[in-house]
Design brief:
403 residues; mainly beta; 4-stranded antiparallel sheet; 4 helices
Length: 403
């Protein structure tokens, strides 16, 4: 790294911390320019120093004869069986830009768009208009969709009007509508056990619901709200751990302008937090826009607005790895998902690409380039092994590994 690059990174750090006088003086006295500072991916100096700190700690532990903790997620190299082949390109499912899409257990796609429709479509390579059915028209464009893996007839939606509803595919209607949020509902998720669902909205609230299975509740609402978390900023994302059963598992969520991952225990409803800053301070240098657990629930992965994804240990909160190569800023809506094997990660990039990393090395192994406009949703169905993406090019694309 030459001296000019170092000047740029220092200037960027001063600018990010709000040290405006020092920043302007740096521009006057060094080789850094405002233009150069703006094009460098955010948080680079912090990332470099964090990595250096980890290396020093590892050397000190080795010199002292201490054994470092091992993490299973980083121990297994990729097997080469990552998804990279497009098998369906559906162009006529919706009239507007497509906002969300998920593949059901039977292989069909449930999707939503700016035209406010929620549709079920058979996976078909070509014109999908004759195999697509509208099951619901929402009051506002639906920004997020999920389906109940224990009862695939149930679909969960959240829209721009602040509404969150559970739909029945067979009945083609909403069978439960939650109390309205004051602003956009940007993320909805069912737990793996199917008994819980959660909503994230721009009114700074995350709400947790549980179904009413007892006889006393049989004649009442299908779901009850059991917890509301008030956050410092817009709640951007949430995810249930794969062990999210009645008294087990957790709900993780992130909000803008917050340096923490909030983790809610489903049994006790107690909240803990993970500080995402490696040095433990409370400075907010990035926002998290997507979050997920890996398949065995030991790790939490986040997509940031600073061109990187960060992998954390679920229990200790230790930073395990940074993934670079997808370009995303504060105006993007990055999405990511895990390969069912846990060996690979897929993430959308602001340049309309899907980037694929091997977790073991952190290296990019493929870039999927079929989309021509921003990608709005990305998911993998573990039962079919297919990757589904959709976006503002008005297409739903289905990918898999062709052997």
């Amino acid at each position: 790294m030459d001296l000019e690059e170092i000047d740029v990174l220092v200037a960027q750090y001063l600018h990010e911390r709000g040290y405006n006088l020092s920043f302007m003086a740096m521009l006057d006295e060094s080789q850094a320019t405002r233009k150069k500072v703006e094009v460098v991916e955010g948080g680079r100096l912090r990332s470099i120093l964090d990595c250096h700190s980890d290396i020093i700690s590892a050397k000190e532990s080795a010199a002292a004869g201490k054994s470092l903790p091992t993490f299973a997620v980083l121990e297994n190299p990729g097997d080469g069986n990552f998804i990279e082949d497009i098998v369906a390109n559906m162009e006529n499912v919706h009239k507007g830009n497509i906002l969300a899409a998920r593949q059901l257990s039977n292989g069909s796609i449930v999707s939503s768009a700016t035209d406010r429709s929620v549709r079920i479509t058979e996976v078909f390579d070509g014109d999908a208009s004759d195999v697509s059915t509208t099951i619901f028209t929402s009051p506002g464009p639906v920004l997020s969709i999920d389906w109940n893996q224990q009862d695939p007839d149930l679909v969960l939606i959240g829209d721009m009007g602040g509404n969150a509803s559970v739909l029945s595919i067979s009945q083609e209607k909403a069978i439960f509508t939650a109390p309205k949020h004051m602003k956009y509902v940007v993320r909805v998720r069912f737990s793996l056990c199917g008994r819980y669902f959660a909503t994230a909205a721009y009114d700074n609230e995350c709400r947790l619901f549980k179904d009413n299975k007892t006889a006393a509740d049989a004649l009442g609402d299908l779901y009850s709200r059991i917890k509301v978390l008030n956050c410092a900023g817009h709640v951007e994302c949430l995810a249930f751990s794969p062990d999210a059963d009645d008294d087990k598992g957790e709900l993780a969520l992130c909000a803008r302008n917050d340096h923490r991952i909030h983790v809610l225990h489903l049994g006790t409803l107690e909240n803990r937090s993970i500080n995402m800053n490696a040095n433990g301070d409370d400075w907010v240098s990035f926002s998290v826009l997507d979050i997920s657990f890996n398949a065995d629930g030991t790790c939490i992965l986040v997509s940031t607005d600073k061109d990187r994804l960060i992998l954390f240990d679920r229990v200790s909160g230790a930073q395990l790895r940074n993934f670079y190569g997808a370009s995303n800023d504060a105006y993007s809506n990055p999405r990511h998902c895990w390969h069912p094997s846990g060996l690979y990660i897929y993430a959308s990039s602001q340049n309309h690409e899907i980037v694929v990393w091997e977790v073991y090395t952190g290296k990019i192994v493929a870039t999927l380039k079929e989309h021509t406009q921003p990608i709005k949703d990305l998911s993998i169905n573990p039962s079919t092994g297919m990757l589904v993406s959709c976006g503002f090019d008005k297409t739903i694309k289905v990918w898999k590994k062709i052997l």
